[in-house]
Every structure is written in C-alpha cells, then in structure tokens.
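Crash report, auto-generated. Payload:
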Amino acid sequence: MRYGILLLGAPYSNQAAHSALRFARTIIARGHQLDSVFFYHEGVHNAARLAAPPQDEPHLVDGWAELQREHGVKLDVCIAAALRRGLMDEEQAGRHGKEGHSVERPFELTGLGQLVDLGLRCDRLVTFAP
Amino acid sequence: MNVNKANEGMNDSNIAHTSITPPSATGELLVILGHAPHGSSLLREGLDMALVAAAFGRRVSLLFMGQGCWALQPGQGEGALGQKGTQSTLEMLEMYDIDNIMVEAESLERLGLESSDLVLSVSVVDAASVQQAIASHTLVMNF
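Recovered output after restart:
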C-alpha cells in the first residue's frame, strides 16, 4: 500500500513525532511504500538541523533523514509554518536577512499544495497530532 | 446549505430532528476542524490547508465539530495576544468556492450555540451525516 504521513507534533514535546517515526519504519519493514512525510503546524520543528538531544534519547531529526537516505522518503516541510517558527533553509535565510539557517537537505521547504497532492495520491494519509 | 431549513421544527429534546443530510455533492477533500480558534493555531492552519486545496482546484468541504464550532461565533478576529483570529479566513471561504460547510448538531447543542447566530451559512448535520460525509470524501484531514 502507498502511504503518506502528516506530522503535526513537535519532537520531544509529545508522542506524535516518536509514534510517526516508528510507524514510518514499520510500514516500510512490512513492504509498503512511504512516499513522503509532510511536516506541518508544530511538526516543522522535526526539521531543525541544530537539534542536539541527549545521547540516550532517540535522535528524531537524524531518524527522519535516515528514512530519506535509505528508503527515498521525501521530507516536505510547510514553508509558511516553518518560517514563522524560525525554521528556514539557506535560501530563505538569505531572503530574510538572517545569519545562519536551521533547515537543510534532505528536508525541503515546500507549500501546502504538496500535502493535498500527497493525500490524494496515496492510499492512506496518516496524521500524527499532539 | 439553508440554515433556516435546517432549523425548521427544531426541538431541543430531539437533536436528530434538527438535522439535515449534507448536500448530495461529494467532495475530494473534507477538512474537519475540532480545535478552538484561539489557544492553538491548529484550526487556523487547518483552514489554510482548505484554502490552498481550493486554490488548486480541489472540491473542499468543511466540518466543524466540538470546540471548533467556536470559530463560527461572531467576533473571532484579532485579539489581545496579537493572533490573527479565524474570522477573516472564514470570510474568504466564499471567494474560494468552499460552500459545503457542515456543523455537527450535538457539538452546537453542547456549546449552547444556535446555528442562526453563526457567521456563516452552514448545514447542521447529525452523527449519521458525519459518517456519510467522511465516507463520501476521497481524503479526510483532521485539525
């Protein structure tokens, strides 16, 4: 089956992001296809490249990146939700006159149109919310 | 879509009779709004989602349930916290051709709201119609 994931929860604040990552790994392990994870609302914090959790906790940002590297899962971040929360890639940082950037590949800033497409393209869009 | 029709024969003791079935036209996307308009940005970001989908030519329906019904009360504009509020977004729905707007009857009842007080013309629907709406849309998103 073809899946998409919509993640609305911030990492390390509630269960949503942890559950979403475990769900993502499980559906892939069971032979399903995961097209994309879309990060929206507080879920955009999962794309923070500067995240440095203690070593004895799961590293969620690296976990998402690994999904992309090993299974080609797209990591799409809503640009409007990200910018207002201080999450931006190098291009946006330049545009907004900011020093440094907080989002990098494999996460990509994109629009909500991608989320609509994902939902309609996949057999299942599963939402993880706070 | 006709609020007055929906309220004909309204009887507080039997909420099912106040309800009408949703318009027969099904849509591609149903956005369910269950959070209050203030306190979190979930409802506003759900509405943004609906507008973007409509802008991309998708047929969008909205369903307000639970605390989400508060968004339909007048006066949900900019507040003391500097949040934008949701009223201005609701006013744009018509421009985006989003006219299938449903409100769950029991939620309205529980919050003490009357459909005639709401800022939009809505269909008041019962639980069975909510099921039908969910089943008849290709994609359902919960905010």
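Post-recovery validation: Residues 3-8+29-74+83-142 of chain B form a domain with the Hypothetical Protein Ychn; Chain: A, fold (CATH 3.40.1260.10).
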